[in-house]
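question for whoever is on the cluster today: can someone run the full assembly for these? two chains, 604 residues total. i dont have access anymore since they changed the login thing
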Amino acid sequence: METIIIILAGVLVTVATYLLLSKGVLRVILGTAILSHAAHLLLMSMGGLKTGGVPVIGEGDGTYTDALPQALILTSIVISFAVTAFLLVLAYRTHQENKMDLSKIARGLKNE
Amino acid sequence: MNNILVFPMVIPLLTGIILIFLRPFIRLQRWISLGAMIVVSGLSIYMLEMIQTNGIIRLDFGNWKPPFGILFVGDSFSILLVLTASIVTGICLIYAFLSIGQEREKMFFYPFVLFMVAGVNGSFLTGDLFNLYVCFEVMLLASYVLITLGGAKPQFRESIKYVVINVVSSWLFLVAIAYLYGAVGTLNMAHLSARVAEAGQPPLVTVISILFLLVFGLKAGLLLYFWLPGSYSAPPTAVAALFGALLTKVGIYAIFRMFTLLFYHEPSITHTLIGIMAGITLVGGSLGAVAYKDIRQIVSYNVVIAVGFILVGLAVATPSAVEGSIYYLVHDMIVKALLFLIAGTMIALTGTAKIDRMSGLIRNYPLLGWLFFIVMLALAGIPPLSGFIGKILVGQGAVEGGNYVLLALAMISSIFVLYSLLRIFKNCFWGETIISEEEQVPLKKTLLIPCVILTALSIGLGLGAENFAMYVKDAATTLLNPSIYVEAVLGE
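^ ran it for u. tokens below:
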């Protein structure tokens, strides 16, 4: 099961890298979102998948899944959510202010 | 009593939250934020003394014993950096009072500076890897806001690049943490160190360590510094000074921690790699520093050179080299802030950043000119000033370690630093005065106060190196003997 998840994470990273290297800023932001999905999947599978019950005391039969990676992922989801929200607004404001093609920023062209 | 350890992070955080409610009262915001930094500096000095007598102090949150809970660990190295960071931030705040402008002050400028400092101090103090990640994000999110705050065109352009680069490096950080947790099964740094030592650092862990090197290399501008010159020249002066003084230094701190505490078993691979990266950084930074005619670019590339220089000390890893790196790290935080402030003042006075468009500034602004001269000598490492002792110790370490290529690169880079700044001094301060008496922009005398304080600190650090040596020695001893740290955390 871990192997499949790792392959899935690998595919996500490939897609994200491709998107990050593209011209449009929106594509880049989508890339960062997919990248964080891949990291979260990786964190989960690194803790070992499905070795016991739900990590709630009283729910399982004595063995529980590792609860630590879940806490880490929860933290990291919130952080990446905040960063993505900021990045989206930043891209919107840049588009609004500069009246220019977002792709120019991605390519690093000076417009002054 | 150990609760004192949490204050460098909690005081800025709480003050920042309070300042959000005091939005219309700018004067009050200024005084409170400055007061918070002074309190943190005072507490850090107290803690530094405490560590000299009692050894490493640690604080377990919620009374969970070390491998299971999050904890803060204060050794001389981290507290020294907390102290320097707080002092430098306080001084940059004074500069910000006079220069940043009402619009930015009304848009939560001070809260975000304090949040950034909270993140920086948290990163220095934490003893947990994932907590380090969170503190990094606290620092970075605040820095994203500070770099965009105000919304000038170049700020937008550079901030998108800056944010995306940091999102990618944070992602790498997360992946590295996942791998390390999968390989070793813990996140507490001391516990990690013990487990890695038990396993004798197998190749898998070495690969993970290189991943960490990439992550912190991106944050610190070690080899992967391509994002740095652009981002550091976009924001207003006070913010750029804070960035130049604090942000890359956190990355350097993390590299030092990682490679002295955790991954020190395969120096032939990891430390050689650090050496190569530091060497290339020195060359690249030196080329950048002499290539541009834009003051901000020159100053930013000087940050890159300093990163390379400090990491040379780690790559060599003899006691005197590490000591030299610590001296240089503290010196560089102070002097880079000063350099950015002076460069920003020059740009504000002349209205241009190109060095061939200004000339003869020393006749109109003599004090500014001589301050720049002193900072130039300090950065190049001229004896009575603060850069000297760091450079000489790193050099001595490199000779002891027989690492002559790095020694040559490090010393030649000093010449490049001197040349690049001397070019600014000669072009901008000497020569015919372009600005006549009538159209001379009056330099607010108060604007020079922070510069003078920083210069005094730099001179004091150079002349008072003896008084300072005790702390640096202790920091270097702890870094080179990870068992001290591990025992302080996991012992009893």
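summary bc i know u wont read the tokens: Chain B is about 75% helix and 0% strand. The CA atoms of residues 289 and 298 of chain B lie 5 Å apart.
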